[in-house]
Amino acid sequence: MRETNKVFHLAIPCKDLDETVDFYEKLGCKLARRYDDRVTFDFFGDQVVCHLSPNNIDENPKMYPRHYGVTFLNREEYEQALEYAIAEKLPFYTEPMVRFKGKQEEHMTFFLIDPANNLLEFKYYHDSSMVY
Description:
The chain is of the alpha/beta class. It has a single domain (9-130), classed as 2,3-Dihydroxybiphenyl 1,2-Dioxygenase, domain 1 (Roll), CATH 3.10.180. It is 17% helix and 39% strand. It has helices at residues 17-26, 75-87, and strands at residues 9-14, 30-34, 38-43, 46-52, 68-72, 92-99, 107-113, 119-125. The strands form two sheets. The chain has a four-stranded mixed sheet with strand order 1-4-3-2, with helices on one face. The protein has a four-stranded mixed sheet with strand order 5-8-7-6, covered by helices on one side. β2 and β3 (38-43) form a beta hairpin. The longest helix has 13 residues, at 75-87. It is globular and about 45 Å long.
């Protein structure tokens, strides 16, 4: 189990720092640091660093195999994140859906796409034992 003294770190490309800050702040992430070539966010308690790298943007992103996001352990928090994304008019890559319906690993999920075509998944498992 994760201890509170550890923070996951993820570095991803971005094409424009201003639009990146706008997207992630609308998502509810706190801007921690900004430099000429990158921005760092508190992404739901973890660290996401968006490096200015306009030549490394995936022009045709696909959900699999590359995306990242948050798995909520509380359904209300998942629903709040979904409501917030809708209210902020964040771009959805896929609409909210239920995956693996009727199976133990059934979960609610939606994908957003950031300005650099990075895909973000937000999900909630009905059976918390399926989180890992």
